[in-house]
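Homework help board

Subject: predicted structure for assignment chain

Our instructor gave us this sequence and asked us to write out the predicted structure in token form, then describe one feature. I got the tokens but I'm not sure how to describe them. Can anyone check?
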Amino acid sequence: MDLFDNEVVTVDVGSRLRQMRTDRGMSMRALARKSGLSTNALSMIERGRTSPSVSTLYKLAGALEVPITAFFRLEPPKQEIVFQRASQRKRVPFPRGIWEGLGGETFIGQVEPFIITLEVGGESGPYGMLHTGSEFVICLEGQIEYEVEGETFILNPGDNLLFAAQHRHRWQNIGESTAKVIIVLAGFEQGERPSEFHLSSGKKADEEEA
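My token output:
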């Protein structure tokens, strides 16, 4: 299963790209020159006529000097009750994986559930992450290795893990097939975006494509 392709970007990033470009006083021609993309391709993305591939997003992020998560960092209205159909999930790609929001982005409380799907060998990166609050993980498919403060846990389908998220942690798909987990973050500090650590700390796109 190849997750790292053109089809995984389901969020319209065109308006966000235009905003970041104009905020920096950068013309489309200048961004094209710095990113190595054509002005026509940039125009098509900004107008929502085409969806950028993951590698294209990394080129744009590098040219704008922002993390790839900046393209998806929109602030929707917060709600006390969130109902979301599967087709409405926000889906964000990262190297060898897909992050899918389960409504926490629009929920008024300090809880954020999401699904992470990982290709074989997909990982969160070599350095680990830490943030405020608590983290709950349940494995749906495949086999995930979670390392928390140097202690290793192997999660098979149905297995779960719960820990204080200020402990440094990382994860990787150690199985022979695609893995899928639900992660729930709760009790984090107001204004913190802990879910971003779970999609922006993997390998860079050029390493994946080499």
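Reply (TA_rk): Your tokens look well-formed. For the description, you could write something like this. The two ends are 18 Å apart (CA to CA). That's the kind of observation they're looking for.
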